[in-house]
Design a protein that fits this description.
This protein is of the alpha+beta class. Helix content is about 30%, strand content about 25%. The strands form three sheets. It has a four-stranded antiparallel sheet, with no helix packed on it. A four-stranded mixed sheet has the order 2-8-7-5, with no helix packed on it. A two-stranded parallel sheet has the order 6-9. A hairpin with a 2-residue loop joins strand 7 and strand 8. Helix 1 crosses helix 2, helix 2 packs across helix 4 and helix 4 packs across helix 5. It is elongated. About 25% of the residues are buried.
Amino acid sequence: MSYSVNQLITNAFYLSKVRSKDFQTVGGDDIAVGLDLFNKVLSQTSSNTKMIPYYSSVTIPAVIGQEMYFIENLVEPFSLTFNMTTVRYATCEMSRREYHATTRIDGVIALPFNVSFERLLGGCNMYVQYLPADTYPFIIWGKFALASVDYGDLTQDLSLTYDTWYIDYLEHCTAKRICNYYGVAINPEVQAIIDQISANVNDMNPIDLTSRKYNLYTDKNGLGWAQVNLGHGFSPDGN
């Protein structure tokens, strides 16, 4: 069943009790205000990415010798892999200090086994080391910012993008914003539903506490300078 942006805003006004469902219609300035508040709800999920329940991926080509790539709308990177023919290679994500503040030889062109992500306006910068030796397809998995809605897209069908329960969450959050905007006390039942869905989404997105140790002698990603300069990232057994 379709569910338009206009319908969400209208129901959010009725949930907020700012407008009465039995005696008032929602239109004109109300829709404009509601759309602005709805977009702020969508934007707020990027500050607490646990409230974005969906992972997706983008694929971009590597550029030979290029270290930095801008990934638009990426707000929580999960992984970077790249392919050489049919072989998929994993990368090791490094902290800001490990990547940007440790001693290394710059300009080495080999397989880009290390990656670091930096959040910035509109997405993330992705840094890779070593510099790509070929135009590998980079596959980036993660969470991406929820797209805002323009006034001309009020008929957009949200059910094509979000699950029904998530539309319900966005609707109740918009209702809360409307209450704050008009200085009206929020209905405790509205807040209870927001809290319940928030808790469920947090359970869906637990913190990943797993760790992995790399052995410089046995791990394929444990590369020394000799291997980089002589083997260009390949291990002696040809893998």
